[in-house]
């Protein structure tokens, strides 16, 4: 164990670290800023001195040298209510945070949906408070991502943009996952397969509906917003208008959970009368009654890849346009 009794009374300075390590001030600065132009012996001496003195680099001074804030924004284009209710967001925040912490970077979480929130967010992000931004749940032709890029802030999105352009994004194979789920229902002999869609101004909502249509065509469809209440309301509408339905593909586990509740209340047995499949393979899928068959998407890996792409862009190692689409797979449980 190191003896810390010789630490200075005030905040240790760069000069004190250099003196303790027996090197020049410039060498200490290079070690603190992560430069490779330092010998292993000198680096160890500086790191030992930093530990002994309890030196903490001055972030403002370091930013002047590196032109970096060491902060990354994670921007969620949803209401706070939805952010805290949907498991997807918690999983991806945890994933992103773990990667950034390992790189000694700070995560700035920003939730913005209302116009005033958006104005504040835009001002904050374009005043050099962060080095880059990860964008979640972008709706439709939202102009903010393009504005941020035009003002020089590197960004990476979760989800394919509505229109092709010079952007970087990470996505799951939403269309392929939905297609496999609906194909499975059809192979099990289901003849009237309905769907509860996600919001059609989001990339996952559109892609999952396209995957459904790849198999069924213009089948029974009701709109949802990925939330449980919308799933229940959509299921009620489907039962009223298509009482003969014998299967439902819901574009999220939360909507599927709402649909299960309505089916139970209506006296429809799952899966005997109506099979139900969700999307996400979230913790909800394992706790519904019966447990929910669902399409797994690699949320944690998506978050990690978003961070990797953004940091590569910051280092100049990645082009401005890069797309990564990760595979999905169907997880079978009792509901189908």
| Anisotropy-based shape | elongated
The total of beta strands comes to 12
What would CATH call the class of the largest domain?
Alpha Beta
The amount of beta strand, in percent, is: 15-25%
Stretches where pLDDT is under 50 for at least 5 consecutive residues are 1-8
Total domain modules: 3
Q: Would you tell me which CATH topology of the largest domain applies? A: Rossmann fold
Q: Give the CATH architecture of the largest domain.
A: 3-Layer(aba) Sandwich
Largest sheet, spatial ordering of strands = 2-1-3-4-5-11
Number of helices: 13
Mean pLDDT: 87
Question: What do these coordinates show?
Answer:
The chain has 336 residues and is an alpha/beta fold. It has three domains: 14-66, lambda repressor-like DNA-binding domains (434 Repressor (Amino-terminal Domain), Orthogonal Bundle), CATH 1.10.260.40; 71-170 and 300-323, Rossmann fold (3-Layer(aba) Sandwich); 174-298, Rossmann fold (3-Layer(aba) Sandwich). The protein contains 13 helices and twelve strands. The protein has helices at residues 14-21, 25-32, 40-53, 59-66, 80-85, 87-102, 115-125, 144-150, 174-187, 203-216, 228-241, 253-265, 299-314, and strands spanning 71-76, 106-111, 132-136, 155-158, 168-172, 193-197, 221-223, 247-250, 275-280, 293-296, 322-326, 329-331. The chain has a six-stranded parallel sheet, with helices on both faces. Strands 7-6-8-9-10-12 form a six-stranded mixed sheet, with helices on both faces. Strand 8, helix 12 (253-265) and strand 9 form a beta-alpha-beta unit. Helix 1 crosses helix 2 and helix 9 (174-187) runs parallel beside helix 10. The longest helix is centred in the N-terminal third of the chain and has 16 residues, at 87-102. The protein starts with 13 loop residues before the first helix and ends in a 5-residue tail after the last strand. Residues 1-8 have low confidence and may be disordered.
